[in-house]
Design brief:
InterPro entries: Leu-rich_rpt (IPR001611), Leu-rich_rpt_typical-subtyp (IPR003591), LRR_dom_sf (IPR032675), SLRP (IPR050333). The protein has 995 residues and is an alpha/beta fold. 10% of the residues lie in helices and 16% in strands. Among the domains are: 63 residues, no CATH class; 137 residues, Ribonuclease Inhibitor (Leucine-rich repeat, LRR (right-handed beta-alpha superhelix)), CATH 3.80.10.10; 129 residues, no CATH class. The protein is flat and about 115 Å long.
Length: 995
């Protein structure tokens, strides 16, 4: 850049020696455009932002080696036009990205000299016409991306010269026809995407020039009503015609190379079969026999999903001898005509779900000996004929779910010797005959959930030695009798949830020695004594939540596993007792569970916990006692839980926490005491919790924090104190929390805040809904890592200009619902990463958003303006576009903003981030969680906040844009200084000449 100006300066000095030329010098200088001042080199990539081209412009720079540049990327630009020869100085360019840049015209020879360019991306622009010779000279181009423009016309010679083009993307445009010459000059085109246009008719000439090259054609999401498959290139391998309006397929030609044909989401009612091809291929040959026609002989997958097919004719699939996958789901098929699948003997997957079949007949699937998956879900099947699946000797998955089956007999599944998944859920089954499943010797997953079984019947599962998972939830089971699970010697998971079981005998689970996961949730068991633990020696997970348990039964686990904690006691790792009627926990309740890892006891009625209640749970890591009636936490209550990492005590009535309650919980990582009645906490309340990462004290009655309350929590990252009665946090209570990243003080009574010293890692600070009326210039001075600051709903009337000076990482500032009457733009002078600024519901009258944006590294900022007293017309208009849920996304022309008085807010200096020049603003609604900050789920919010902000406003090549050289602004200033110096010299020459 500097060398470029040096050469210009040398030229001027030469002209200056000839006094009569000084006027010409001024004209030369004023007409000299340096487009490259907005471009920077990153490795071998050339990245340009906020560029505008005019006729005659040439992209140029002397500060880089143009021959080394392999890629050029335009970002946040408003190009409108690509002039002739604009890239002529970059002869070795291989990739060119001009996406979302408002481009609407490409001039002839715009790509001249780009003979080695291989990839050209022009998506998301405003192109309407591709004129003849538009891409002439791009002889090495292999990929042309023109998606998401407004292209209506492609002239016949538009692609002239693209002899090596392999991939052409014209999807999501407005094309309804193509000139027959369009593809004449792309003889090597392999893949063509025309998805999402407006084609209604595909002419026979449209693809005639691609008969030997095209492999992949996508015409999905158009408006095609009728299709003649004979018009497509014989070389085609993949044809996608999904989501059109096709009613009839009028011809099945010789498509020897097609292996995937997608016709889903159309209105197809009729597919012409081989016996009807006579009138199509031999219309004038009366009486002559039909020649042998091989229809789609290499077709592997045919998708006719979501159409209006009502029946399958006997020779429907004639000629498709290699078909492996056939998708016919979501049609109107009511019956399968015998012989429908005779010609597809190689079929492996058949999808007939969501049709109107009422029965499965013995002849329906004759000949499908290689079928591995049969999907018949969501029909109206009431009857299964005897041996209806007998020919499916290779079947592995059979799905009969969501039908109207009532009874199951042993003859229904004969011949299915390899089936390993059987889905029978969501039927009306109320009876299983003995030995129903005797033929299914290979079955390992059986789903009978959501039926009407009142009982199981002895020996129903006798011949299922390999079943590992049995699902019986949501039936009408009230009792399980002895022998019901005979034969299930391999079962690992048994789901009996959501039934009416009131009793389990000691012999209920005899024979299920490998059972690890037993789910008894939402039944009517009154006691744990009804669970036969003696026969469940391998159990690792027991869910008995939502029953009627009032007590655990003294020593229920020790009586089962032995007081010496035998090998059997090591199994149970997860015990769920939540949502029962338990009122107390006794010392011996959990004896025998020394290896329990998770214990869920939330939503009971627990009031009392005896001393040493959890002492035997030496391996416990997760304990949930939330939503009970506990009022006091004592040291001896939870003593011995040395491995505990997560303790949940929220939503009790806790008012008293002893000074050393948690002192022995050295492994504790997360502690939730929210929604209780705690008013005071002693300085030693959390002593010993040195590994604590998250602490939630929200929604209590705390009005004061002891100065040293958190001093022994070096790893604390999340601290929630919202919805308390804190009025004073000026005593240094947060000092020492060097790892803290989120601090939530929302909805307290804070009037004054001191410096937040020691919070060197804090990146999210919520101070909303307090009584803060003034902030000192040093309030946030030490919070250099802060990303999000919430100050809404306070009484702030003014802000010192230096209040955010050290907060260079701030991305989100919420100042809404205060009493601000004025706000200096320079308040945000150091906020280079600002993305969200909420100013709504104040008393502001005028502010310059463009000046704020000039301070930021970003080219757009999301504002909320509504609810103020704006006296500027444009701000009043913007205020109408912002709401409590939506931001206004504002982008400013930086060049204009530096040279104009911004108080006028002229529309040429504020434009939308959209490429549409007629739209001034684009509402933006962020993820609700970004401003939540109310519970532990926010840990994922604050840790990725900057990344989320960046991704919301950067496109796919943003990783390169972030690498821009930092000296760009300095170069612009240097250019300006040089211009001033030149004009001064010229002025002095003029004065001398006049004298």
């Amino acid at each position: 850049m500097i060398s470029s100006w040096y050469k210009t300066f040398k030229q001027i000095l030469h002209f200056m020696e000839q006094k009569e030329n000084f006027v010409a010098i001024i004209i030369l200088l004023l007409g000299h455009e340096v487009i490259s001042q907005d471009c920077n080199q990153v490795d071998r990539n050339f990245i340009c932002e906020s560029v505008e081209f005019k006729t005659g412009d040439v992209l140029d720079t002397t500060s880089i080696n143009k021959l080394a540049i392999k890629s050029i990327i335009f970002e946040n630009s408003n190009l409108n036009i690509l002039p002739r020869n604009v890239f002529s100085k970059f002869p070795n360019l291989q990739q060119l990205y001009i996406n979302n840049s408002g481009l609407n015209q490409i001039m002839f020879d715009a790509f001249s000299n780009l003979t080695v360019l291989e990839e050209l991306y022009l998506e998301q622009n405003s192109l309407t016409t591709l004129e003849n010779n538009t891409f002439f000279g791009l002889e090495s181009l292999k990929l042309l991306q023109l998606s998401e423009n407004e292209i209506e016309t492609v002239e016949g010679d538009a692609f002239l010269g693209l002899i090596d083009l392999r991939l052409l993307l014209l999807d999501r445009n407005k094309l309804n026809t193509l000139d027959p010459r369009t593809f004449t000059f792309v003889p090597n085109l392999k893949s063509l995407n025309l998805l999402g246009n407006s084609f209604e008719v595909i002419s026979s000439e449209m693809f005639s020039k691609l008969n030997n090259s095209l492999l992949n054609l996508n015409l999905a999401f158009n408006k095609i009503t009728k299709i003649d498959l004979s018009i497509f290139p014989s070389s085609l391998q993949v044809l996608d015609l999904a989501s059109n309006e096709i009613v009839t397929v009028t011809s099945w030609p010789s498509m020897k190379n097609v292996f995937y044909l997608n016709l889903q989401g159309n209105h197809i009612r009729v597919v012409v079969t081989i016996t009807e091809i006579f009138s199509i291929f031999q219309p004038f040959n009366s009486g002559a026999p039909i020649q042998s026609i091989h229809l789609a002989e290499n077709l592997i997958e045919l998708n006719l999903e979501n159409n209006y097919l009502a029946e399958l004719k006997g020779d429907f699939f004639n000629g498709m001898s290699k078909l492996r996958v056939l998708k016919l789901q979501s049609n109107s098929i009511t019956d399968i005509i015998p012989g429908s699948f005779t010609h597809v003997s190689a079929l492996e997957q058949l999808y007939l779900s969501n049709n109107s079949l009422t029965q499965v007949k013995q002849t329906d699937f004759t000949g499908l000996s290689k079928l591995s998956q049969l999907h018949l879900a969501k029909n109206k099947i009431k009857n299964l004929s005897a041996s209806c699946f007998k020919d499916l000797e290779s079947l592995l998955v059979l799905d009969l779910s969501e039908n109207e089956l009532v009874r199951l007999k042993d003859t229904h599944f004969s011949g299915l010797i390899k089936v390993n998944h059987l889905h029978l859920q969501n039927n009306h089954i109320y009876e299983i005959r003995p030995r129903t499943f005797r033929a299914l010797r290979a079955l390992f997953r059986l789903d009978l959930s959501h039926n009407r079984l009142p009982d199981l019947g002895k020996d129903s599962f006798m011949f299922l030695p390999l079943v590992t998972e049995l699902n019986l939830e949501y039936n009408n089971l009230s009792q399980i009798t002895d022998g019901d699970f005979n034969g299930l010697s391999s079962v690992i998971s048994l789901n009996l949830a959501n039934n009416r079981i009131i009793h389990l005998s000691e012999q209920t689970f005899v024979g299920t020695k490998k059972l690890k996961n037993l789910i008894l949730r939402n039944n009517e068991l009154p006691s744990l004594a009804d669970v036969p633990f003696k026969t469940l020696s391998s159990l690792t997970k027991l869910d008995i939540s939502e029953n009627h348990l009032t007590s655990l039964g003294q020593g229920i686990f020790s009586n089962t596993y032995g007081t010496n904690l035998t090998k059997s006691s090591s199994g149970l790792a997860n015990l769920n007792l939540s949502n029962n009627l338990l009122t107390s926990i006794q010392e011996i309740d959990f004896l025998g569970l020394s290896n329990l890892i998770e214990l869920h006891m939330q939503s009971n009625r627990i009031q009392r916990m005896d001393k040493g209640s959890f002492t035997s749970l030496q391996s416990l890591k997760h304990l949930d006692l939330s939503n009970n009636l506990i009022t006091t936490i004592k040291t001896e209550t939870i003593a011995g839980l040395t491995s505990l990492t997560n303790l949940y005590l929220q939503s009790n009535g806790i008012s008293n926490v002893s000074s050393d309650a948690f002192q022995n919980l050295g492994s504790l990582v997360m502690l939730d005491l929210s929604n209780n009645s705690i008013a005071k906490l002693s300085e030693s309340a959390f002593s010993g919790c040195t590994k604590l990462v998250g602490l939630d004290l929200s929604t209590n009655l705390i009005d004061d924090l002891q100065p040293k309350l958190f001093q022994n929590l070096p790893q604390l990252t999340l601290l929630h104190l919202q919805n308390n009665f804190l009025s004073n946090i000026t005593n240094g209570c947060f000092e020492g929390l060097s790892s803290l990243q989120l601090l939530n003080l929302t909805d307290n009574a804070i009037e004054e805040i001191s410096d937040f010293k020691g919070l060197s890692s804090l990146n999210s600070l919520y101070l909303r809904k307090n009584r803060i009326h003034k902030l000192s210039p040093t309030s946030f001075r030490d919070l250099e890592e802060l990303v999000l600051l919430g100050l809404s709903s306070n009484d702030i009337k003014s802000l010192d200009e230096s209040i955010f000076y050290n907060l260079t990482n701030l991305a989100d500032i919420d100042l809404s619902h205060n009493h601000l009457t004025e706000l200096e733009e320079s308040t945000f002078a150091t906020q280079k990463n600002l993305v969200f600024l909420d100013l709504h519901s104040n008393q502001l009258t005028c502010i310059d958003p463009c000046e704020i944006i000039t301070y930021s590294h970003h080219y757009t900022i999301n504002f909320k303006f509504h609810g103020n007293l704006w006296n500027c017309t444009l701000l009043r208009e913007m205020a109408r576009d912002s709401t409590d849920d939506f931001y206004v996304n504002v982008r400013c022309d930086r060049k204009a903003s530096k040279t104009k008085a911004m108080r006028d807010f002229s529309t040429d200096t504020i434009v939308s981030s959209s490429s549409n020049q007629n739209a001034n603003f684009r509402p933006f609604k962020p993820d609700k969680d970004v401003h939540n900050g109310n519970n532990f789920s926010d840990s994922t919010v604050f840790s990725q906040l900057l990344r989320d902000f960046e991704e919301a406003h950067q496109r796919r090549y943003s990783d390169l844009v972030r690498l821009f050289n930092n000296f760009k602004q300095e170069i612009v200033i240097l250019n300006a200084i040089i211009i001033v110096i030149i004009f001064v010299i010229l002025f002095l020459i003029c004065v001398r000449h006049v004298k």
